[in-house]
Amino acid sequence: MSRRYLMWFAHEHLDFRHAEMQSILSMLKIPIKFVEKPSEHQPYWIVDLPSETCVKQIAARSVLLKNCIELWSRAKSEAQLHKNLNSAVKNISNKWIIPNVDNEISDTHICPCQLLEVCSDSKKSFKVDVETFCKHFTMKEKVDKIEKFSYLPLHGPVKLNKPDVTLSYIEFYGVDPNNVPEEPCDLFFGKWIADGQRDLIQVHSLKKRQFIGNTSMDAQLSVIMANQAQIASGDIVLDPFVGSGSLLVAAAHFGGYIWGSDIDYMMLHARTRPTRVGQKVRKKEESIRGNLKQYGIESKYLDVLVSDFSLPMWKESLKFDAIITDPPYGVREPTEKIGIERDNYTLSEHHLDNHIPSKVEYGLPHIYSDLLNFAARHLNMGRRLVCWYPVVRDEYLEEQIPTHPCMKLVSNSEQVLSKLTARRLLTYQKISDDIPETPHDTRATVHNFRDRYFAIGEISRREKKERRAEELANSAIYIKAKQDRSK
Amino acid sequence: MKLITHNMLTSKCLKGVVTGYPLAINATNIKVTEVDFNPEFISRIIPKLDWEVLWRAADSIGHSDGLPQTIEPKFEENSDFLKKAHKVLLEVEIEEGNLVCPESGRRFPISKGIPNMLLTEAEVQ
């Protein structure tokens, strides 16, 4: 028998909610059935899932999931909620009573009393948590709310610290803090099952991480990427633009063994200028490896290498289970490969040892073209490439997204960066081993973000200046007019 | 640099080099660090390796003790063997030294455990 659960999400990164959850569900091969159609304005899903074990597996992965409860009742008003629960006590049919099948809202459904009976044992201690969204209540008011559930057959002692059963009562007052209704618009009651991985955001926080760079990915987005790449224990993971290795921390956390490469020698040796305010020199322990050590997952470290992604280095037969990366966009980090504009350049033997090669522009279109070709060649079948792709918001069209015949785009979520720009998290799945003889060129469809970024910035800067000048002029006229009038 | 990485690296990016595999190792400083043993991972990775290359690499830096030259058919069940493979693949690391292209003799320096596979601008022209 499948069971009904309420999945409560954090109200942020909305565009990533489905992408992350679908990746986790398909990785764990867990079927899901929506009891109510999910909506972007509501931070919850009401779903049927096969078992409590499945719920715990999902919660052990998702960073956008706050918690998951076994749903006993959901209603649109307080009276209805209590009516449902009162009826549930008498529902011995061992299944949900659904009075009106056509109704899209499940607010009159009555759960089987077996769900309650499991918790009613006089030896089982319990507590009731009251959560209210978008409205604050005092402890006294919350206790009053709990008292109203006194008809429930709970015979065990109340225990606030680590009880056997945690019941959860949720009142939802919408998501608009400036327009909070008098009565809650949704109410839920059920048994708490598991929390999601919100804690990881603090544990992996960049604020406390030893080694970070200017463009280190924040902990939450790194975990989302690892989930979308479906990284499982023992997988081999590569980040070909590794930088300070922030994506690999999340990958290793889920058991992936990690390789990274980057063209920036100084970065991998942690000899770049420190990113933190007030820090003068890099510390000795600062390195990608040091970060993994900090989180107790150093055993998942394979190696990092200084290399140029535009040139092949790995042996042909090597296959990765996942490739996750955040390529440079050419704005905060340069897009470069080894090269020189001059012809017939030679280097004398005694310069060779400490030589730092010159670099030329490695445009974003080339990077994505190489990345997709590389992934098609070096991913195991069915596995995923997850990468960021910067866009100018006004000009973004879905057709701009790079394509490859062997790589299917499975999700595309937007993170807004500024009024003008955003980046999109692209997830590709390898669907074919039939790799074209000549490298597939995706460049025709990819625009050059760097050029657009600076061109647009230039216009808006000029606009701003003109607008300010105009305002100044207007106010000068206004002041003058006022002065004239007062005379 | 671990030997698992060495097993996957080539120098085929160099002009005129056909396979560039396996790279020779000149090590001046080797260290052994302890890494958690994960038999499932080792069993999974072994079929992906060129075992002969691994054995020769381990031998060339003096860490082939007790390591068989060929893999036996049911290696997954032999935990003693998996432990030895684990040590050679993940625990032995080249801190300082060079990787050498077998065809051109080009050296790629390893410093503080990180190989530098960058070419010079002259080599990519």
UniProtKB/TrEMBL annotation, chain A:
Main location per UniProt?
Answer: cytoplasm
Q: Which reaction does it catalyse?
A: guanosine(10) in tRNA + S-adenosyl-L-methionine = N(2)-methylguanosine(10) in tRNA + S-adenosyl-L-homocysteine + H(+)
| Pfam families on file | Tmrp11_N (PF25904), UPF0020 (PF01170)
The GO molecular function terms of this record are:
tRNA (guanine(10)-N2)-methyltransferase activity; tRNA binding
Give the matching CDD domains: AdoMet_MTases (cd02440)
Q: What is its EC number?
A: 2.1.1.214
Is Coiled coil set as a keyword in this record? no
Highest taxon in the source lineage: Eukaryota
UniProt-recorded name of the protein: tRNA (guanine(10)-N(2))-methyltransferase TRMT11
Domain tRNA (guanine(10)-N(2))-methyltransferase TRMT11 N-terminal residue range list: 4-93, 123-198
PROSITE patterns the UniProt entry points to: N6_MTASE, SAM_MT_TRM11
InterPro entries according to UniProt = DNA_methylase_N6_adenine_CS (IPR002052), RlmKL-like_Mtase (IPR000241), SAM-dependent_MTases_sf (IPR029063), TRMT11 (IPR016691), TRMT11_N (IPR059073)
Q: Name one GO biological process term.
A: tRNA processing
EC supergroup of this enzyme: transferase
GO cellular component annotations, sorted alphabetically? cytoplasm; tRNA methyltransferase complex
Q: Which residues form the Ribosomal RNA large subunit methyltransferase K/L-like methyltransferase domain?
A: 208-335
Question: What function does this protein fulfil?
Answer: Catalytic subunit of the TRMT11-TRM112 methyltransferase complex, that specifically mediates the S-adenosyl-L-methionine-dependent N(2)-methylation of guanosine nucleotide at position 10 (m2G10) in tRNAs. This is one of the major tRNA (guanine-N(2))-methyltransferases.
Q: Which organism is it from?
A: Leptosia nina
> What interactions and quaternary structure are annotated?
Part of the heterodimeric TRMT11-TRM112 methyltransferase complex; this complex forms an active tRNA methyltransferase, where TRMT112 acts as an activator of the catalytic subunit TRMT11.
Regarding protein family, the annotation reads: Belongs to the class I-like SAM-binding methyltransferase superfamily. TRM11 methyltransferase family.
Entry keyword set: Cytoplasm, Methyltransferase, RNA-binding, S-adenosyl-L-methionine, Transferase, tRNA processing, tRNA-binding
Write out the annotated subcellular location.
Cytoplasm
TrEMBL record, chain B:
Q: Name one Pfam family in it.
A: Trm112p
Which GO molecular-function terms appear in the entry?
protein heterodimerization activity
- Output the GO biological process annotations, alphabetical, semicolon-separated: rRNA (guanine-N7)-methylation; tRNA methylation
Top-level taxonomic group: Eukaryota
The text of the family note is: Belongs to the TRM112 family.
**The protein's name:** Multifunctional methyltransferase subunit TRM112-like protein
